[in-house]
Amino acid sequence: MKQNQGQNNSGQQQPNQQQALGDVQVQGDDNIFNVIQAEIVTLTQTKIIQISVDEIKTRQLISTSPYKGLRSFEPEDRNQFFGRDQFIAELVNELEQTNLVLLLGASGSGKSSVVRAGLIPWLREKLGTRLVNLILNPDQDPFESLYGSLLGHFKQSEAQIARARKVDTLSQMVEALKQPESFWFIFIDQFEELFTTSNPDQRDCFITSLRHLCEKRSSDRTLKIVATMRADFLDRLDSAPANHLAKVTQKHRPLITQMHPDELRQAIEQPAAHNGVVYEAGLVKTIIKDVQGQAGYLPLLQYTLNRLWETEQHTPAFQQERMLYTHTYLQLGGVRGTLQRHVDNIYGQLQQEGKHLVTQRIFLKLVGIEKNAESGTEWKPVRRRANQSEFNDLQEKTVLAQLVDQKLIVSNRDVFSQSQESTFEIAHEILLTSWTTLNSWIKENRQGIALRSRLNEDVKLWQAKRADNDLWSGSKLEQVLELLENTTFNQVLGGFSPAANEFIKASLGKRDRELRFYRNVSIGAIAALICITGSLFVAGFQWKAADRGQFLAPLTSSKALFDINPTSLDTLRASLKAATQLQQSFWFKNNPKLRAQAMEMLAQAVYAVREQNRLEVCAGIYTRAL
For the stretch 58-83, what's the b/e string if a residue is b when 16 or more beta carbons lie within 10 angstroms of its beta carbon? Predict the structure, then answer.
């Protein structure tokens, strides 16, 4: 049905701007917009009202861009969020069946946005003041993040319960703080941070605590939890304790997919229509064609539309014509080229100012690697949230402020804030792949980034207990020490964080203690060996001397007796004893000189005795003959 100048077929006046916050569509190139006022769950009851381009232009002009760029949608952005009504209805249906839903999707698929700017505003509309909405990202300590989300609804003393960090913390928190008439909605965004950023002990404890809460409150219809996670992290739920959580969510893991062309048309046109601006005929069709089949296109789309709006906004004709033009879209580079060109321009300006190396260092400090890919063939860079303490250099802070102003990096506080809780991260993961310069930096420094990521994981583990067993040693420590001496690593990657440097220092301390211990043990062992060897030498010397005496005494005696009476039997006995002792000697039995002396003495004694006996026999014969 068509209408002119704000009237429909029934002649009823077109609803005002506050009423017409449904989805707007342009049907082909005829510039007729369809405004859909939708009750999200009962989409079959949607009423379609058609209005003309001229009618949209009569609305109050809101010059502020309705597109988010690389920033995340928030609950306050409901009036700029369109095209996901059907999926929101499916999500509500999932929550009707369970108290925990794990929403999966690729990076850039709009997981967070559909909850923040779609589901949460719907819950607010339905529940009003009954709704207690807790939004958190796990970060390094999910319990601390939960504590932060509670501060918006409860006193600090009441919120402290979230810091207990026990397996029943979440159950105790709900038991202590939830009023019977209230409706709690807990949104855990970027659930994969539990595996990429959080301390491993805190992660396991939080996951177990979440499972206990879901089991204990399984029949409570006033407590609902949604967690969003990148689909490529689903395998992280295979091992304990996450595998128990996987069983709980097994039947409730909706997958957010690419938008249909009609949904894309709504997402493109309606924010502009809400602000009183339209697209040139055919442009929306061109944009839809450009994004179809492109992975993770939503952030690129939002960025391009925001740049298109801001460019047109500064033209003299914008106030009068209120139109976004095709030629401007093409000049910007379209969906595929706008981000690349714009970031290149920003970087080019920084290069001219001599800040290119600082810019590279800042971005690479904010890049990590998904740790399952470290030893495999798959390279998966991810955003990394860095603390204020990692940017102490004044020039780094200056460039960081420029990048935050350009919305390429986001921060929870002012860049020059002295708060240790200040954090920074790349605005969206799409930059890691869509900006070719950054992508090249990452590939060139892959090994350094991988080692730094692995180090950061172990730093978090060590910080929890300060156990020596968690420190590095051997080849891993040697690799880190080599990087510390690497000028390129320090200039390009910015070295290691203060926490990592503390970890390295502790690892070196452990290594030095072990070296001192082993050195002392070695010295003691050598000293003991010397003592033992000395004792053995003395004992051996004494034994050798005693052994020598065993045969020298009878040998000397036999010589003395031989000199006195060579034919004496005592001489023969002494010679035999000396020869026998030499044969039994351990040290001297194979000594040729001593053997010769002993045998010579024995031979002389035997010969003398034999001659004496022969003479005595002859004498006896002679006597008898006489």
Answer: ebeeeeebbbbbbbbbbbebbbbbbb
Helix (H) or strand (E) run with residue 186 in it: strand 183-188
In a domain, 520, yes or no: no
Residue 279 backbone phi and psi in degrees, to 5: -100, 150
* Nearest C-alpha neighbor of 36 from the set 53, 18, 48, 51: 48
- The whole-number pLDDT of residue 12 equals 35
CA dihedral 436, 441, 445, 451 (to 10 degrees): -80
Task: Answer whether 366's CB lies under 8 Å from 426's CB.
Answer: yes
584 and 619 part of one domain: yes
Is there a cis peptide before residue 498, judged by omega within 30 degrees of 0? no
Against a cut of 0.70, is the pTM above it? yes
The predicted model gives 267-287 an average pLDDT of 96
Determine the pLDDT at residue 533.
Answer: 76
Instruction: Indicate whether 168 and 203 sit together in one domain.
Output: yes
User: Coil, helix or strand for 267?
Assistant: helix
**Which tokens sit at 525?**
């062992």
Q: How far apart are CA 479 and CA 67, in angstroms?
A: 46
H helices present in 67-199, as ranges: 85-97, 111-113, 120-127, 142-150, 156-159, 169-177, 193-196
Residues 173 and 276 in one domain: no
**Same domain flag for 485 and 615:** no
List the domain range (segments joined by +) for residue 322.
23-67+259-332
Q: Are residues 98 and 232 both part of a single domain? A: yes
Quick one: what percent of the chain has pLDDT higher than 90? 54
276 pLDDT tier (thresholds 50, 70, 90): very high
Q: Within this chain, do residues 318 and 367 fall inside the same structural domain, yes or no?
A: no
Does 363 map to a domain?
yes
Residue with tokens 């204020």: 388
What is the C-alpha to C-alpha distance for residues 307 and 299, in angstroms, rounded to an integer? 12
Range with lowest mean pLDDT among 136-140, 150-154, 420-424: 420-424
- Asked if 233 and 89 sit in the same domain, the reply is yes
Residues 322, 294, single domain; the answer is yes
Percent of the chain with pLDDT over 70: 77
Examine residue 268 and state whether it is found in any structural domain, yes or no. Answer: yes
Ordered strands of the 423-426 beta sheet: 386-387, 423-426, 409-411
Task: Write down the pLDDT at residue 31.
Answer: 34
Three-class SS of residue 403? helix
The string of pLDDT tens digits covering residues 224-251 is: 999 999 998 999 998 889 898 999 999 9
